Amino acid sequence: MRVLSFDTSSPACTVAVVDATSDAADLMAEINAWTPRGHMARLLPQIDTTLRETGIAKEELEAVVVGLGPGSFTGLRIGVTIARTLAQLLDIPIVGVPSLDAIARRVGAFEGAICTIIDAKREEVYAAVYESSGGSIKRLTDFKPLSPESLVYELAEENIPRVLLVGDGISAHRKVFEGHLGGRAVFSPRDFWWPRAADLAAIAAPRLVEGAVDELFSLVPIYARLSQAEELWLKKEHA
Amino acid sequence: MRQSQARKKEEESIPAIVYKKAKARRETESVPMAAGLQMLAIETSCDETAVAVLSNGRTILSNMVASQISLHERFGGVVPEIASRRHLEVINPLLKQALEKADAGFVDISAVAVTIGPGLVGALLIGLGAAKAISYVTGLPLVGVNHIEGHLFANFLEHPDLRPPLVCLIVSGGHTSIVYMPDFGKYELVGETLDDAVGEAYDKVSNYLGLGYPGGPVLDGLAKDGDPSSIHFPRAMLHDGFDFSLSGLKTAVLNYVTRERSAGREVNVANLAASFQAAVVDVLVAKTVAAAQRFEVENVALAGGVAANSGLRAGFEAAASKTGFELFYPSPALCTDNAAMIAAAGYYRFLSGERLPLTANPDPNLRLT
Ligand SMILES: [Zn+2]
Fold first, then answer.
1. Closest CB to B82 among A80, A86, A227
2. pLDDT of A119-149, one tens digit each?
3. What's the mean pLDDT in A61-77?
4. B19/B34 Cα distance (integer angstroms)
5. B residues 72-131 near A, CB within 8 Å?
6. Nearest Cα to A136, choosing from A111, A159, A163?
7. For position B34, what pLDDT does the model report?
8. What DSSP element (H or E) covers B111?
9. A116 CB burial (10 A radius; 0-12, 13-18, 19+)
10. Is residue B182 part of a domain?
11. In which domain, by residue range, is B233 found?
């Protein structure tokens, strides 16, 4: 099954074309570019270039996979709008995958607890905790934004001997993690911090093969936060 | 090399004879026409998601608008993040509906037009993203449209006899300006608001009085039962150039209400609305008529959401019969944001050979002039 996959939740723009089967997603081509605030201009030309690398015509694509975040609201909407419209026009199924799950998959060889952390601005991070064992990864939490302090508190509560931290939330808050978790915190190298489209496609592959796809008209990003106007409104209502 | 190939492909996708004919006709008459050319258009610049299919630059085959007014009501104005989220939710089903209503498939479409600005950047991104994806899959040429030019073109949609030169008053929630249009595609800014847009002033006054959102239709409705000469509000800069200032008027209304309330008098809301509206309309009419005289045009057009305001229309009707210019304005449904007007403006831009590349970004501050 020829699958186009991409993610625009982070400052990176990542596009892949894979051949998906029930137990594998063979990578045909992947292009990763560093394009903060440049997704609108870059995504479609980058999709076109990636497809050209594989020799597959866009009409031959059989599914679209898109990263749902959480992450930059604007970046996510660009990716999801384009994914939905491509799927609609090509009349092919669409599957959305949490971008943090893709980041966790990149470090799936690690045995034990994995925590993905990305910068959520406003002194918060989006984080998720996974259990990785024997090559399979299970997410244990959802994607609420929280302060790095509450995150380390939650991690410290759990009786985990070691936790692998991965994601660009590390760079601003490294000291908090080191200070509270000490030797239990293992930091991934920087080049693992951003999602890759090949991982998204691999996560989506079993669902695509089974036909457990998403509803095109209701697929939206994982915002994990209300708009600030709604947050203020709720605060006022409950004051 | 690749560019010229791309252009060649675009020209092949519409019948060459039609394209030539349209060009030739444009030299002899002002309104360009090309038979059998269907334009798909998308508009998402503010709080309406809209998709339309327009045939031959004039016949509306479908004009779908998904309004978000109810989502923004409790905030008293458009919240950009909420607007962007909603646009993404509705754009694809709306596209499907617009094509179904027009009884068209992509094989019937010749080009795609999309609003690229001015507007809320997050909102514009949704329409542009969808339009670029459509263009990429279908190979259809893409045209970027200025939202304000779209409002102006709503007039050409409904008045086949309208031709430039003309002077147009563009009034909406975000814009208040007078534009001189000597010919198609040519614009000169004559005057604009120095502070609040007209729609914004209506919203603020209505909000202050607790009358609801959007303020324009609310106050316009109340004004019908009020006496416009009951309260005197200032007409700022009435004889002073072509620019507007509306924040002083808004403050005068708020001061009046505070004064009356603190004196224990009940405010007659209908009289207040009528007097406020009269002050706004007097200034807009005076400046627009002065601009028409300055540029010696016979045609005056109104455009934008506030052009649906009945008080404004009545004011201009009266001035037209007194001064003798010909007045044009779109029906209310085409005054507010819609994609048919974007298709009409895009149609003109398409015929003049303009194209938008797949790398295009929106321009939230795009100017007409
Ligand atoms: Zn508008």
1. A227
2. 999 999 999 999 999 989 999 999 989 999 9
3. 98
4. 7
5. 74-75, 79, 81-82, 84-85, 88-89, 91-93, 95-96, 106, 121-122, 125-126, 128-130
6. A111
7. 55
8. strand B111-117
9. buried
10. yes
11. 163-330
Query: What are the structure tokens assigned to A195, written together?
Result: 């999602």
Do the domain assignments include residue A224? yes
CATH number at B81 reads 3.30.420.40
b vs e for B170-193, b when ≥16 Cβ sit within 10 Å of the residue's Cβ? bbbbbbbbbbbbeebeebeebbbb
Question: Do A175 and A213 fall within a single domain?
Answer: no
Percent pLDDT > 70 in chain B is 91
Q: Do A40 and B362 touch (CB under 8 A)?
A: yes
Distance in Å, alpha carbon of A82 to nearest chain B alpha carbon: 6
Which of B82, B129, B360 lies at the smallest CB-CB distance from A78? B129
CB-based contact B362 A74, cutoff 8 Å: no
Model confidence at A169, pLDDT cuts 50, 70, 90, reads: very high
- Cβ of B129 within 8 Å of Cβ of A82? The answer is yes
Average pLDDT over residues B240-246: 91
| Segments forming the whole domain that contains residue A53 | 2-99+194-234
Question: ipTM value of the model?
Answer: 0.96
In this predicted model, what pLDDT tens digit does every residue of B314-344 receive, in sequence order? Answer: 999 999 999 999 999 999 999 999 999 999 9
Q: How far apart are CA A186 and CA B188, in angstroms?
A: 63
DSSP-assigned letter for residue A182: G
Is A239 among the domain residues? no
Nearest to B125 among A58, A77, A218 (CB): A77
- CA A187 – CA A181 distance, rounded (Å): 11
Residue B19 has pLDDT above 80, yes or no: no
